[in-house]
Amino acid sequence: MPRYKSPHLLVAESGADREGHGLKRTMGLFQLVCFGVGAIVGTGIFVGLSDSVAQAGPAVVVSFILAAITCVFTAFAFAELGGAIPVSGSSYSFAYAGLGEGTAFLVGWCLLLEYGVSVSAVAVGWSQYVNELLDSLVGLRLPAALSAGPAEGGVINLPAVIVIAMAAVLLVRGVRESARATAAMAVLKLAVLVAFVAIGFTAFQDGNLTPFSPEGLAGIGAGTTAAFFSYIGFDAITTAGEEAKNPRRDIPVAILVCIGLVTVLYCAVALAAIGAIGGDAVGGRPAALSYVVNQVTGATVGGGVIAFGAVVAIASVVLAVMYGQTRILMSMSRDGLIPRVFERVSPKTSTPVAGTLIVALVFALPAAFAPLDAVVNLCTIGTLAIMAVVNIAVIVLRRREPDLARTFRVPLYPLTPLLGVGFCLYLMYETGRATWLQFAVFLAVGAALYLLYGRRNSRLARVTPTDAAERVPQGV
User: Fold this and answer.
1) How buried is residue 453: exposed, middle or buried, by Cβ count under 10 Å (0-12/13-18/19+)?
2) CA 25/CA 176 separation, integer angstroms
3) Residue 21 included in any domain
4) pLDDT tens-digit profile of 96-143?
5) pTM, whole model, 2 decimals?
6) CB-based contacts of 152: which residues, under 8 Å, 6+ apart?
């Protein structure tokens, strides 16, 4: 059996094997794929499509493909590392094993931003579609005071809080129940989007695709950055490493299937929407998909069906991403980098109850009261930085740990991970100087937290040279 050179890899893998961690293996390949679709397909396409179209016009299809290519390169990296290090920490654990504790803490810090902003933004988008659904069913909308934050003229976004609370209840009940709910919602929202594509193409007109790229390459680049937000969440599959029945085989397959399926779906939806009513009518419009269906069918019933699909779709994103965040915090807590409350697992439900409730509370506050548009780019640049780090971790671990068991290997190594880093850096550049400054401040705060708390309480400091040289991880 191999003896690993790096104490970081020892800690990353052995953390999952500590007595009493309490997680159970209940998720098969189908559930992992549904979990990935549940984490990805939501606000990005139901709400964010209009923002991407406003930037790129009909060339948004190219933007979706470029964003997908960026994700595919990194998906290969996630697939290799998810099969080789099948634990709950996802990017955090991969960075820990390959690049060390300090880098891993900053990755975990960025993951908190990625998942926190995306869940809060998704919950706000859910509120919009709840209003669309109520309008189509009974002709009523929630009062602005209860469906929007102070920045939008309301008092509290109550639906956003409710969807986060419902997700927390399911997660506390158990991963089996959460996985079943996610699978059912994933199948339903795929059916709704396929129905949307079919309706949109009945009114398709070639003339609506011209001019194809009204803002040129600059518009496509900006649209790619906006479209990238639609793919955030595919890495959440790797957070199920300790609850998948066969993680070394199923996690790589689930990641690649999800990226391919979602890319085809996004391009089809964009073409159907723009081809039906034109890019100007889609761009910048809230609840754009319901509007398209209403315009094509001349009735509100179809738009109501789409709104129902969006309500289900966006709720599943909240559920899947909150699941991923609690598992990442669990891994960081095991390593001593954050308080131990996040690693405690209920013996009754086999879930981190306290950690889940804390995450729900923290995510609900900005969803209820804060404007999130200003931090969406910050979330994007943080996610891209994480993806770049994962690609680098593949290269480092190939060199440092050649005997690490890998059920999937990145093709065309080392070209593929290098291209992954390059695409991530390009999209990071497209976010603009102001976002870079915000990101620098955010990282500085994270570094300060690591120095003041994480490094002092680190479990790595308690791993002796003998442990690192002689102990062989039991694996998962």
Assistant:
1) middle
2) 9
3) no
4) 888 888 999 999 999 888 888 778 877 887 887 788 788 877 778 888
5) 0.79
6) 144, 371
